[in-house]
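Researcher: Can you fold this with NAP in place?
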Amino acid sequence: MLNNETKLFAILGCPVKHSFSPLLQNKWFEKKHLNCAYLSFEPNDYELECAIESLKELKFNGFNITVPHKIKALKYVDVIDKNAKKIGSINTVIIKENKLYGYNTDYLGFAKDLESKKVIIKNKNVIVVGAGGAARGIVFALKAGNAKNVYIANRTLDKAITLAKEFKVKSINIDDVKDTLGEADLLVNCSSCGMKKEDSLPFKFGKIKTGLVVYDLIYNKKTPFLRFAKNNKLKFFTGEGMLIWQGAYAFKLWTGKFPDIKIAEKLLKKFLK
Ligand code: NAP
């Protein structure tokens, strides 16, 4: 039941209509018997500052930020969490006593999802494909998890080099993924390759290390990375778990409680049908 006491939350993105977050967060509020509601708004680039200011004025308690505002939103919060600062983007904001506190729960979501699937990062060799916004959080999580070597490969090599320098990891030419697969334990697709039907695997492959795990941040699509894993009988995970866990950490930041992941998994299955 919504009333004068209802605490308000939201997601800001553009487009946002496809977002799973309103369904997810409202279900968790309901299950925890919290008098909270979560809405979605679609400000464009020019409207973002005003939208954030409005949420503050209207006494919202917090919000999520999604594509394409995760970097720009850094400018509009008062305090940025130290890890979010290193990653260079925020996806969760707490509003408390008229101040905005920005966090990044994407990297936590990825790390927790790997842990829940018993995929070990520590001392492992990891290839990250992609050097955009999502890759930043993933590389940060891999470093925080003490991966032995992180190799960033990207269609545009310059971007891989820049990102690798910033995070003090290695960059490789996308064509060299072929040779690196022989020693890789984990391959993470952080690129948008697979979002379009016609996309193909951006590298060739030869020898693959036994036990290689493939993790594709893209979910609900038959991506080239999924086909690669299937054809080579490799363990494969999509970004569904990351999506759920990043939401769970946002929920925890706002409410102090950890939500039920099983409920979220069921809900996401229905949502994606
Ligand atoms: P972004 O900043 O736009 O970066 C896109 C990256 O993909 C760039 O490195 C780009 O390479 C590369 N790329 C695009 N099309 C490609 C293709 N056909 N072949 C090879 N590389 C290609 O996007 P982002 O925010 O990092 O997001 C990347 C993907 O992760 C998206 O598909 C998004 O849906 C997914 N994602 C999932 C979650 C989750 O919770 N599961 C969270 C965040 C993001 P260039 O530099 O050469 O252009």
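Model: Folded with NAP in place. The chain has a mean pLDDT of 97.
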